[in-house]
Design brief:
The complex is a heterodimer of chains A (112) and B (114). By secondary structure, chain A is mainly β. Helix content of chain A is 0%, strand content 50%. Chain A is built from no helices and 12 strands. Chain B has strands at residues 5-7, 10-13, 19-24, 31-37, 44-50, 53-57, 64-68, 74-78, 87-94, 104-105, 109-113. Chain B is an all-beta fold. Classes of the chains: A mainly beta (112), B mainly beta (114). Chain A binds chain B through residues 4, 31-32, 34, 36, 41-46, 49, 51, 89, 91, 93-105, and chain B through 4, 6, 31, 33, 35, 40-45, 48, 55-56, 58, 90, 92, 98-108.
Chain lengths: 112, 114
């Protein structure tokens, strides 16, 4: 079945460092791909999404490109801030399938 | 726009008891999904409700059941609670219409089973 594999954490960076969180997926069809962020004590917030190959999702300085050839959707940010500290989840959703699949999450801590 | 709301925020139960969690979807959304998020894990799909019926179900036992009301709000019921049911339960809503469903999540209900 469909699945998502994320880079294991935790990840600790200094403020203004470059961030990459790797995400690869296995899917039978043509999924949409998502990055969600979860701040402490809160639910999941959609960070960005891409619905087809070569699409780039972006939001709040974060970017991810849907790479069909490598089945990847890596999250990047050029300069992280302390406020970016959270758990990041990669997820996929197949067309007309309501079972959204999530990776295990990557905890990011940004130190001043 | 209130977004997705869930109640209660926290809940403590003992093994064997039953629990009901509640969810109100985002305005304009008529589809509600429930997820279980164990500590340190990603959310796992329990089921989805649309038009007051269970439309799709994940790999969860029958102890997990749900309901959707005419105003699109939903309940998740768990019977005969086990220690392993301790988790954050997330409700997510989306508009109907098929396709790739972007889901909006609520803050969750933290269930602890002692």
């Amino acid at each position: 079945g469909d699945s998502v594999t994320q880079m294991e954490g935790p990840v600790t960076l200094s403020e203004e460092a470059f961030l990459t969180i790797n995400c690869t997926y296995t899917a039978t069809g043509y999924p949409s791909l998502f990055w969600y962020v979860q701040y402490p004590g809160e639910g999941l917030q959609l960070l960005l999404k891409a619905t087809k190959a070569d699409d780039k999702g972006s939001n709040k300085g974060f970017e991810a490109t849907y790479r069909k050839e490598t089945t990847s959707f890596h999250l990047e940010k050029g300069s992280v801030q302390v406020s970016d500290s959270a758990v990041y989840f990669c997820a996929l959703s197949e067309y007309n399938n309501n079972d959204m699949r999530f990776g295990a999450g990557t905890r990011l801590t940004v130190k001043p | 726009d209130a977004g997705v709301t869930q109640s209660p925020t926290h809940l403590i139960k003992t093994r064997g008891q039953q629990v009901t969690l509640r969810c109100s979807p985002k305005s304009g959304h008529d589809t509600v999904s429930w997820y279980q998020q164990a500590l340190g894990q990603g959310p796992q799909f329990i089921f989805q409700y649309y038009e007051e019926e269970e439309r799709q179900r994940g790999n969860f036992p029958d102890r997990f059941s749900g309901h959707q009301f005419p105003n699109y709000s939903s309940e998740l019921n768990v019977n005969a609670l086990l220690l392993g049911d301790s988790a954050l339960y997330l409700c997510a809503s989306s508009p109907s219409g098929g396709g790739w469903n972007e889901q909006f999540f609520g803050p969750g209900t933290r269930l602890t089973v002692l």
